[in-house]
Design a protein that fits this description.
The chain is of the alpha/beta class and 140 residues long. It is globular. The chain has a single domain (3-139), classed as YqgF/RNase H-like domain (Nucleotidyltransferase, domain 5, 2-Layer Sandwich). A hairpin with a 6-residue loop joins strand 2 and strand 3 (25-32). It starts with a strand and ends with a helix. Strands 3-2-1-4-5 form a five-stranded mixed beta sheet, with helices on both faces. The protein has four helices and five strands.
C-alpha cells in the first residue's frame, strides 16, 4: 500500500511518499502557500500527487501538545484532515508528530546542510520521519 506522509504547517506542507510495498518513506517536496487558510492550491497539488503515486491513504502528522492535549495547531490539523478526506477520497491516518521537526533539523545538521539552507528541506524531511514512523508501527 503506497501512502503519502504530510507535515502540515501554517504556510507549508511537507510531503513524503512510501515505496509501493509500504516499507520506506522518501521526502518528496514542500508545498507553500501565501496565507494559512488559502488551501485550494495545496489541496489541488496533493490531489495531483495522490493520483501520480496511486496512493491508498495519507498519514498526517498530528501535533499534540507535550502534555497530550489538543491545542490550536492540532485543531487546525483535524480540520485539514476533514478537507483531505473529502477531496481525495482516501483514508487519512493521524500520527503523533511531536519533535519530528527537531529530528529533521538534527538529521540535516548531521548531513552538513548549513542552517541557512535547512528551511528548504526541513518540512519534507519531517514528513518522511512521520511517514516512516507510521510504517514502522504497521510492520510490528
Amino acid at each position: 500500500m503506497r501512502l503519502l506522509g504530510l507535515d502540515y504547517g501554517s504556510v507549508t506542507v511537507g510531503v513524503a511518499v512510501s515505496d509501493p510495498l509500504g516499507m520506506t518513506a522518501q521526502a518528496l517536496e514542500t508545498i507553500t502557500r501565501d496565507k494559512e487558510n488559502h488551501l485550494r492550491s495545496t489541496l489541488r497539488r496533493l490531489e495531483e500527487l495522490a493520483a501520480a503515486y496511486a496512493v491508498e491513504g495519507i498519514v498526517l502528522g498530528f501535533p499534540l501538545n507535550m502534555d497530550d492535549t489538543i491545542g490550536d495547531r492540532a485543531q487546525k490539523t483535524l480540520a485539514f484532515k476533514s478537507q483531505l478526506e473529502k477531496r481525495l477520497q482516501v483514508p487519512v491516518f493521524l500520527c503523533d508528530e511531536r519533535l519530528t521537526t527537531v529530528e529533521a533539523d538534527e538529521a540535516l545538521e548531521e548531513m552538513g546542510v548549513p542552517r541557512s539552507e535547512r528551511k528548504k528541506y526541513i518540512d519534507k524531511i519531517a514528513a518522511a520521519i512521520i511517514l516512516q514512523g507510521y510504517l514502522n508501527e504497521r510492520i510490528k
